Queue: 2 jobs
Job 1
Amino acid sequence: MASDAEQGQLQAAPESFLSKDLVENISRDGINPGRRSLLQGAFTAAAASMVAPSLMADDDPDIVNLPTWTRSLGKPVVANPYGQPSPYEANIVRRQSPGLTRTDQSSVSFTPLQNLFGMITPSGLHFERHHQGWVDIDPRRHKLMINGLVDTPLVFTMEELLRMPSVSRIHFLECGANTGLEWGNVAVPTVQYSHGMLSASEFTGVPVSLLLERAGFDRKRANVLLAEGADGSSMTRTINLENALDDALVAYGQNGEMLRPENGYPLRLVVPGVQGVSWVKWLRRLEVGDTPWATKDEVAHYVDLMPDGTHRQYTSIQEAKSVITAPSGGQKLLKQGYYDITGLAWSGRGTAEKVEVSVDGGRNWRPARLEGPILPKALTRFHCDWVWQGEEALLQSRVTDSTGYIQPSRAQLVAVRGTRSIYHNNAIQTWRVGADGEVHNVQLG
Amino acid sequence: MSSWVRATALWLCTMAMISWAATLPEGLAELGRPATGGEIAAWDIDVRPDFVGLPPGSGDVWAGEEIWLAQCASCHGDFGDSNEIFAPLVLGNITDEDIATGRVASLTDPAVTRTTLMKVPTLSTLWDYIYRAMPWNAPKSLSPDEVYALVAYLLNLGYVVDDDFVLSDTNMAETQARMPNRNGMSLDHGLWSVSGVPDVTGSSCTADCDVAVTVTSSLPAYAMNAHGNLAEQVRDWGPSPGLWTATETGKETAAEPEQLAAANAAVEAAVAPEAALNVGGCSGCHQMAGQLVGPGFDAIRTKYAGKEHAAYLRDKIVNGGAGVWGSMPMPPMPTVGEDALQQIVAWLTSGEE
């Protein structure tokens, strides 16, 4: 008979076996010798009622010996005024890739895609990319200015922005440099580092088109927008007016609450389908213009080097891409049998129409099951049944988007763009499953 | 810049396709107020490639060098060539030929480190960026004249201008014509517009496809632990837990629960004051162990164990200073909040591990 002590669990005595009268007595008079013996009696009775039944060979002790949590009083409300994940989930956090950046303020932390479900990233696990650290902004003192080619340059307070008609939309947010470490060769072990500059949230805010309309922008000459942050870097990026008028938002909400500071509290730009650097955080200003600004992150970075030595400038759209998140690199299949191969697919030009999965390195493909809702410029979760019988396997996924664009293999992508462009690597990812069940990041050729 | 004209024309076409509903809900016109001239001047500091937005002023290479050594060299190196805090801004690798053609030839050479000056096509960008964001730890503290001088100095380091060069709002355009990579950018791609045409296409083959399936690249065993122990980075009770990559031999096995528990405990003990240091911007120059720009915090904590040092350190952090660890000055850090300062000083003087 396995006792709690044998299982190494320390256990608080249950409180509820004391009679109400006794408790009142004790709290009034304290414990005197007479009451102490009464108490002891109560303990003995409680202990007797708790004796575990005998355990048979096939019995699971966690079922037969009721665990602590089934036999004790739980914690009170607002023990955590802002809820926290279970302590058993402590592994699932944002992480840095050692050596990727030289400082922690101009750096990246990656989303743990390997263990997330569905199509939304919990706000606290949304990847981070800052250029000059992140800041805590007082929303009462934060303003949004709209100027440039407008009738009236305007200033909005946060209070005013929250009064305006708002929309909530689910969109993915992917850094242009996501998977950038993998252009030349395999460089990182897990999907967190290879694809984790990817998140998706429900964003709430005011359509940019409404704000531009309010300011009376110059329809004839306007062509681009400059978005500018209020942090030390005052990050600036040129936004295509086509995107801005179509579906861009000045957002304050993320997954039902305000934006997290690391994600731009209290205001950020949302430019669906466009790379993350354009979603300027801590947004303080939108300027309407007629020619691009060639800002630092449009000339020295976020430019894609081609084999002939030219850089492609203003590469913005995130083309269709997919990745299997589980099983994925750095994991181990402990048993043979059924696995749900699952992953994410997305496109900056529309919806993920079709996802196919291969377990033999791309020789044969079968359709995956897409989970709804399938939304434009959002993440779509896919699943594919797989029975693993201990054989070696090469797992891949391939998305086709609503424009008919098919995600390229690494060989197809590299044939055009070479291996030095850093940005916009949307190649098919391969995970090799060994006969020992170990899953490793590999590239094929 | 003919490519600009072409691209602009293309963008205007896509604009015309947008159907536009121009009605504002009633009452909305009362939200937002006109911006004042002073407000616009305070925020609208951007400088475009055609130099719209550039304030008047000037600065020469010598003045630039002086400011550089005092305010920039600690992170970027005396010659802008340091790789410590950020990638090199300039290395002496730009040729006369590059300046003549406006194309940096060595960009095709994978062995050559790509510096900022090798990439940047537009002079306005350097001006705009330094004015808005540098020095990194005290952005927006430079005057326009100082920025002109610093840009002149950087160009001089790259052999784009001579030692006696003076850069000003009146010769920016002329100087632009010498930018080494001014013709190095291409807008000929489909990634600017949602309706752009892709340059790469995948295959629709679904059966017996003719593809190579030989593994050509994977992580070598010694690199498996370079990102830390993977067993601690994956849900440890799920169907496919993380590989244990932290053993001395580098041998990978699935994680054992005791190993996980021990590793988690170690992580918890090491987390204490980093938030304050990060928010204060200290970690740009100091790391936990070993010299970076400033001394490692391990050395500082050993040297200043004991409450009696608190007042001195507090003063040094707020007001800066040099000469204790070397000639490199620590800049004043007046913006560190009181709470963070107290936390940092308490930790620095606490003497415990």
Job 2
Amino acid sequence: MNAEIRPVKTAAEIGLADLFAAVRKDLPGGSSIEAIRSDAFDRFAAQGLPNSRVEAWKYTDLRRLVRDAKPLASRPDAAAKTAASGAGAVFAGLDVRRLLIVDGAFVPELSDLAALEAGVAIRATVEALGTEEMVLPFGMAGADPVAALNTALAGDGVVITVAADVVVERPIHLVFVTTGAAPAAMFTRSRLELGNGASLTLVETHEGPDQSDYQVNAALQMDVGDKASLDHIKITSEGAAALHVTTLEASIGAGANYREFGFTTGGAVVRNQLFLRLAGEGTITSVHQASLLSGRQHADITLTVDHAAAGSQSREVFKAVVDDEARAVFQGRITVHPGAQQTDARMMARALLLSDEAVANCKPELEIFADDVQCGHGTTTGALDDQLKFYLMARGIPEKEAEALLIQAFVGEVIDAVAREDLRDALSRTMHDWLKGRE
Amino acid sequence: MTALLDIRGLKAEIDGRQILNGLDLTVNKGEIHAIMGPNGAGKSTLSYVLSGKPGYEITGGEVFFNGEDLLAMDPDERAAKGLFLAFQYPLEIPGVATLTFLRTALNAQRKKRGEDELSSPDVLKRVRELAKQLSIDPEMLKRPLNVGFSGGEKKRNETLQMALLEPKLCVLDETDSGLDIDALRIVADGVNRLRATDRGMIVITHYQRLLDYIVPDVVHVLSAGRIVKTGGKELALELEATGYAQYQSEAA
Ligand SMILES: Nc1ncnc2c1ncn2[C@@H]1O[C@H](COP(=O)(O)OP(=O)(O)OP(=O)(O)O)[C@@H](O)[C@H]1O
Ligand SMILES: [Mg+2]
């Protein structure tokens, strides 16, 4: 941080300070946790909400976009639980273990905790904090003001541990849902510890009502053991007026196989920040992201990949379909640390603009401190190809359907990266729904 | 009887340049018309204007397709009414599987005509049969449309689409170019199978050879955006010998 003098605090910043002062004593965790929270809040307060002069937030000026601080959501009552029970419908009919986080609180009675696989443990974050477990501190995400705010205010979430060599066949689905018409703020923190040689598919969905301008600040830390295999899929389809900020921090062990997939269709302002550290040698990582945006939506994917050890491979593919006056942002930085020889990293960002007012900002970067590496990146931005569209129409396919086919083809590459067929089909359905909404 | 296709005094421009200069052409059901002519004469332009490619400005004339105003229709509507253009340069569409494309096209046309849509297995069955007739490897149907297909494979794929969609008027723009001798016969056989009393064809070609297989009823010379000469199938042989020099000077 440079020593610039911060401008006057905004209403939202003042509101957040008041909020923290008011609730800090009631937040879960004893004195050691409280110390971590105050420290984190101080770090946030020193920086304030990030504005466009902060490099990592260049295109998403939260200082401007966040007007006010919302009160913390109250723990879900019976009505909220009823409203939440049908959430996560994208994966309805699939054999997944549903865990519901309603208005920021883990709700065991709505969750499927029966017949847990041997070696799998699932707890509420509030429970872990109650025993002073150090689930809050961040690694590389720690310097980020929004992540710091999450540490300060995180109330609940889910802590999942999978013991070494346990292969979990049934995917775990974290269903995050916001209910209620009164706008509130939700700060959740979740954690996954995947043991050496273990294997898991973790799915996350985020949704809420269109009428409320609620605010979500969710964070997930993942510790992926050596030779483990993890598929993580996150679908962000928040309500039309929602602010959604998530921080994903992952550390990947030697020889592990990690596939990250993100799909963003909903929310007024979305920021998904991913901090990935390929800590061990010889990891294979892929990150695929698709954003389908319309209206005046703004979605920012900011990705940091640290190749910290030798011989790891990473592939980052970002695709955005942007309609109306929406804006898609992709910032990706791959850092190859000294000693991370034989790194093979490739990043590609492509945006498809469906209207003249649609905007895409793509900024891929490479920082290389090792000499024996293969790295590359590229970006393309363009409209639908009129020639291709004509070819389809000349075969009798109506214009909207022709466009839909071309858009599907564009996004398809990203969806194809999802290993499980049932999840892939569910994602294709989500894409079709989005395309139907255009007609 | 109404003509299948009736073009009267058609004039068209692209990017401010006039390409079609008052073109007249009438095709009746059951007829095969060959159009020959020098490079740049406007043959592909005619095929694009007929199929409704954007970017062309019609500055004069009329086109009737089965008595209906063709130029007022969108490209997909023209296709559903039975117009088919086999492209001189078929396009590659990454990410769209050939079979998906074929099914979508067929069912879109059927839907527009008020016919029942066909199930995926039904479409697959038809497509496989046609693929076999045209010596197309069925594995190719799973690949993205035309992506990585050889020049000849693309042309065969165009013929497959035409056979599947069973159009009323087939416009073949140099379907023979890029085909080896065996493929030429296979494609020509495919086209000949489509010959029918209620179907017309316009075959654009530079070579007499194709017309040995697909024997035309009428041969036209298109030069500088107009039909400048019309004759029987012997005209093609004559052109082979004399070239276009006399027609180009006439047109100028
Ligand atoms: N966008 C454009 N702007 C200006 N001129 C164009 C444009 N597109 C095509 N033309 C011109 O139109 C003329 C007719 O082209 P067309 O493709 O119809 O010829 P053709 O008869 O099919 O030739 P070939 O036998 O080589 O296939 C050519 O001179 C070409 O350069
Ligand atoms: Mg041509």
